[in-house]
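To: structure desk
From: M.T.
Subject: fold request, one chain
Message: Could you run this one when you get a chance? Sequence is below, nothing fancy, just the single chain.
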Amino acid sequence: MKEFDVLVVGGGAAGMLAAAAAGFGGAQVAILEPNEKLGKKLYITGKGRCNVTNSADMSEFIKNTPTGGRFLYSAFSAFSNTDLIALLSRYGVQTKTERGGRVFPQSDKSSDIITALTRYIKDANVELIFKKAAKLLIENGAVFGVKLSDGKEIRAKRIILATGGLSYPQTGSTGDGHRMAKEAGHTITPTHPSLVPLVTREKWVSELMGLSLRNAEIRVTNKVGKEIYRDFGEMLFTHYGVSGPIVLSASAYMNAGDFPYGLSIDLKPALDEQTLDKRVLRDFSALSNKDFANSLDALLPKKLIPVIISLSGIEPRKKVHDITKEERLGLVRLLKHLPLTVTGTRPIAEAIITSGGVDTKEIQPKTMESKLISGLYFAGELIDVDALTGGFNLQIAFSTGYLAGESAAASLFEY
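Reply: Done. Structure tokens follow.
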């Protein structure tokens, strides 16, 4: 039977930082990881490029964390984005900042991040155990170890749960941490997908599958017409609906029981309706003898034209010079407010992150220790905190992991 000061359950972003922080804090540490290697989900983040953090200041991090932002003040203070960038640099990974403050490794390889963090935990003398945890061992309101799926036990004075959420289950995020926390008496707020593609009622989206709009603005409204989200940037049409960065962020503001939502796309956000109307008038004047179907090439991507023509209600073979002012203004409104009805999301297995998890009211924000079970700490996605796209969620994992590891180690030496 092995025995450690600190046992970290989960070897992802949060788990690796937790283990290293505890190791450098003087504790004898091990990571318990069910996969054959560490950082499996990190490897696929950012389409393999790994958007590790964001260059925004910490107040922006709080604003970009719709669920549980204020809970994270201490974690972000303990280990910030600048701390992470400095750490990666120390281990040979230089970073670059792209649009929206997104920070990536200069190499565009997530494997470089995993290699750096693996060296970091090695320097902290962390032992790796590639086995699956089945149950927390608790006695008299305190943890004393973990029972493995093979029935064996590992004893530890402190346990850090960093098992991830429910998204991308092939990487090991299968909800085991939520189950173990619940068995320990913790409340698990309902889980649902966040940062996830959206499904729409309108079937014409399938005709646009693969079309990416780089400069679109979306506006999301609830059932009573109240705006709940607005953003500008890149989006993508799919066979089932819409995806892309601004759509994924919009999903973080949608509640599972409140569908449908309205989603309006502004195809020309740089122009107000009056200016766009003048632009359309100029195009129409130059193409007055053409059919309407052949008059939008300079205005829209080729794939989008048939859909806009159909939705406009203007006869495709109608000559441009015969289009009425009302029809033209209707076209302009359509370009500024292309309507979609969002009926739901794709499954949680396709979500970037899980919303919901261990209730933050039951966690000490200054240490990440459980308020219910002595010696039990939490880190990363299994906590009920989630942010928008842009590197914010990975920073949450790194920051909460670091704080949990540092706190767990420090608690061992308190007198």
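Reply (cont.): The mean pLDDT is 95. Let me know if you need anything else for the meeting.
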